[in-house]
Amino acid sequence: MNWSVVVENLSYLLRGAVSTLAISAGVVILGTAAGVLCGLLRFVVWKWLGAGITGVIEFVRAIPLLLQIFFVFFGLPALGLKIASFPAVVLAMSLWMLANTAEVVRGGIQSLPRGQFEAASSIGLSTVQAMRHVIFPQAIRRMLPPFVGLCTILIKDTSLAAIIGVFELTRAAQETIERTFRSFEIYLVTAAIYFVICFPLTQFSQRAEAWLQRP
Amino acid sequence: MAYTFDWGAVWQGLPYLLRGAGLTIFISAVAMLFALALGMILAALTQVPGRLVPGLVRAYVEVFRNTPLLIQIFIVYFGLPQLGLRLSPFGSGTSALVLYASAYNAEVFRAGLEAVPWGQHEAALSTGLSPFQTFRYVIIPQALRISFPALGNNLVSLVKNSSLVSIIGMVDLMFVANDISFNNFRTFEIYGATAVLYVILVLMLTRLLSVTERRMLRSQ
Which residues of A touch B66 (CB under 8 A)? Predict the structure, then answer.
């Protein structure tokens, strides 16, 4: 074991961690906005649109994220859509986030008692108004724990960006190891940095879930 | 956009892709079997009296759930040889998957065990069963039934996560897709076909799980 290697390269790894957080933030913003929209569209307006969205979401959720990244980065250029590695990762992961967020939204809305919908429409609210003022404000509390869990998975999965050469924590670790040949120490510290980022989030998610289950 | 699709490339590559899918199924099945066993043992250890053992299990679960699977695979495949422990790609890939999935399974089993009402323990003990027999014949079967849907989700995740072993050179479905498309440059068609194969795998699996669940409920 040689821990001085870790001390010398820690600042480089932390630069990678900052990049990991930046990618995650971008994906959370893009994917969540699109995911909430798609999740809600499944309940309001036309049936065929909802069915189409559901089909796409189920398809995306059934394939590995790694395949999605390869598809965007290597597959789309074949059609003439050249895309750099960074936007490719953000796009592929946002699609993943979209599909899973939409699923969380669906779960949150469907967990509400049917009477809420009926009561809202009986006082004369339109479907959109009912969703906006009655259903969504209640459902969002139930969506919070699974959504935070999703963000944790997302942060861990940004490590896949390293495979197509995007600079983030895992890539920083690989570059450090290419220089120093100390794979065990460097990967261990890398794992520790991911842990420090993700652990508070999973704890928050668990606490929030327990808190919501209180009567 | 003047692109001519060549779906013939998919037909040509299909036998190779299917062989890759076979390995994906095999790795997932082996990893899930071990991950179920390890997860069950870990969950049972959380019920041991005292603080030390449940605390250690808790630490294991949190460490493996809060670090990326890719890093875990790299530590086993690239890191451990530095300590003198050299595993094959299959050995490292599968053991990393087992460690990762068992943390998730342990959490599901633990929740299942704690969801069995306390009266069940008391009733079983009062009929003269030993604490071990109570656990083995009364609590575990009920906990399993409660945990089944969540374990099914973990299995589906495992199938998708198994694509990461392609990075360390296992010739699974993901690896074959890369191999073919980097040779014939039909990336769009090959990755598209691979996505469809993964979807078919996951659909078959969820179907199998829901049939099993219905059988289990009926035999109750």
Answer: 152, 156, 194-195, 198-199, 202
